[in-house]
From TrEMBL:
Pfam families: Polysacc_deac_1. InterPro entries: Glyco_hydro/deAcase_b/a-brl, NODB_dom, Polysacc_deacetylase_ArnD, Spore_PdaA. CDD domains: CE4_BsPdaA_like (cd10948). This is Delta-lactam-biosynthetic de-N-acetylase. Residues 58-240 form the NodB homology domain.
Length: 250
């Protein structure tokens, strides 16, 4: 659900230095280095927005988009716990309504639950500040009602669709917006990638400071995450939380 991201892996995509309205896009140009995106890290800073960390250190930030629950999240949480790896789960209203126990487990095991909007619309089409804020605030309300605590003000635009106005609206609400610097096509339920396909992308394009986007609905992710995290560790990578990324950017 949270991931029809069009041409995000188009290798010939031309990058620009200012945020472009539309889809988040990446161009992988040099192995072991962050991809070029259609907004630079420095440009995004003014909106409290991130897609990776500029660092020589081998650190990774794990994030999952959770549009609905289909039985794969428990195995993902098991793997994260085994590796003591903090993650951020960006959830929608349906997820909190149908899987409150898993949301509570995420919190109990030290993960962050972020805002992926209530209904998962194309937020870039929302020019009204009221309608934009309602999508985030309605999820905040449901989260607090369900968990008894306020929601972390971390936001990920559904489908990676955004506008500069959206980034400013989110910032005005106190949110930090998180895109990603590594992902792969893992969201089609009837066309799940093989382990080999997953590792080719997720290992071949890894880089220091990566914000990795995976979908918790993916059976492939549930099956390979333990081995994937082991391979990252063997490559010398450590896992950090988005809280640590934010703290280090100040």
């Amino acid at each position: 659900m949270a991931g029809r991201m069009g041409a995000m892996f188009t290798s010939h995509q031309k990058a620009v230095t200012a945020a472009a309205d539309g889809n988040w896009g990446l161009s992988f140009q040099q192995e072991g280095q962050p991809p070029v995106a259609n907004a630079t890290m420095d440009y995004l800073k003014q909106f409290d927005s991130y897609y990776a960390q500029k660092t020589p250190d081998k650190v990774l930030y794990l994030t999952f988009d959770a549009g609905y629950e289909n039985g794969n999240t428990p195995a993902i949480l098991d793997a994260l716990k085994k590796h003591n790896a903090p993650a951020t789960f960006f959830v929608v209203g349906n997820y909190i309504e149908t899987a409150p126990d898993l949301v509570k487990r995420m919190i109990a095991e030290g993960h962050t639950v972020g805002n992926h909007t209530f209904h998962h619309p194309d937020m870039s089409k929302m020019s009204s500040k009221d309608s934009f804020e309602k999508e985030l605030k309605d999820l905040e309300t449901l989260y607090e009602k369900t968990t008894g605590q306020p929601m972390k003000k971390y936001y990920r635009p559904p489908q990676g669709k955004y506008s500069e106005a959206n980034l400013q609206m989110a910032k005005d609400m106190g949110y930090k917006t998180f895109f990603w610097s590594l992902a792969y096509v893992d969201w089609y339920q009837d066309k799940q990638p093989s382990k080999e396909e997953a590792f080719k992308k997720l290992l071949g394009r890894i880089h220091p400071g990566a914000i990795i986007l995976l979908h918790s609905t993916s059976s492939t992710n549930a099956q390979v995450l333990d081995e994937l995290l082991t391979k990252y560790e063997e490559m010398g990578y450590k896992f950090k939380s988005l809280d640590q990324l934010v703290a280090e950017q100040k």
